[in-house]
Amino acid sequence: ASVLGARAAVIGGCGSTSNVLSAAKYNIPVAGTMAHAWVQSYPTELEAFEKWAEVYPDNALLLVDTYDVLTSGVPNAIKVFKELRAKGHKKFGIRIDSGDIAKLSRKARKMMDDAGFPEATITASNALNENVIHSLLQEGAPLDSFGVGEQLITSSSSPVLSGVFKLAALKIGDGEWQPKIKLSNSKEKVTLPGEKKAYRLYHKGTKNAFADVIALADEELPEEFTGINMDPMMTETEADLKDFDAVLLTQVVVGPKAKSIETDTFKIQKHMYEKLAELPEETQRLLNPDRYPVYLTPALADLQAKMIKDHKLK
């Protein structure tokens, strides 16, 4: 789970991983810094930093909060930066893993700038999540990167991902697909019958998406139609859909076989960013985002309603 979780995190936007096996399997850059135990295992913090810089002279990221960030960690880091620069090395930085990260990072930034190291980076860690990171950036914390761990690939709020298989259509011999439906007293658990395809709708002439539409596999979208909102919690159950460009979403399974898919992690990440940029900004808010609407075509909605009715008449 940790290996695949690291890959998923990179697809979602992260740039590297500290999971060495995941890095090797999926060609992801390895990143990370020393542990506090490394610093504690040497007689002095400065010696610990110097030994680390011997091993990683071209990427010395020093953990500065083992004892005291501002009176010990950063001053010792600056001494090592001077030694590295004298030897021709240019890539180094610090990591802060505790305390008031916004305040400490501002003071550390000034100390390193005053010492002539504006290129030295600052990484923050310590139980970070999207809300903490957003708050730090809103405060103007001069942070270059974030080390995010357990709150990224371990779901504390919803530790079980419920995935359920339901049959949508059945093909008998060489005959046609027979639509199937699963009924429930809960509207959101009633399945969509039949073989289907999905479209993304864009405002005409743009790459700005405003809705997705699920249609039956053998129907084509008209230039204008009434979409049936498939979200049972929405009060607006229908919408007039017009003035759009429709793009058929990528088919993953064609006939009995799955299509070949991209396996390069960073190409998948690039595709993710491109698709995310097409969605409305209001649907991407961390707090209280708007719902991105998904509609059914009238033909699909009618088929679902007919199958529900036919079952009740039996």
Quick description:
The protein is of the alpha/beta class and 314 residues long. Helices cover 34% and strands 18% of the residues.
Describe this structure in words.
This protein has 314 residues and is of the alpha/beta class. The chain has 2 domains: 32-153, TIM Barrel; 180-313, nicotinate phosphoribosyltransferase (Alpha-Beta Barrel). Helix content is 34%, strand content 18%. The strands form 4 sheets. Strands 10-9-14-8-7-11 form a 6-stranded mixed β-sheet. β5 (169-171) and β6 form a beta hairpin. α1 crosses α2 (20-26), α4 runs parallel beside α5 (69-86) and α5 (69-86) packs parallel to α6 (101-114). The radius of gyration is 27 Å and the shape is elongated. It starts with a helix and ends with a helix. The relative contact order is 0.09.
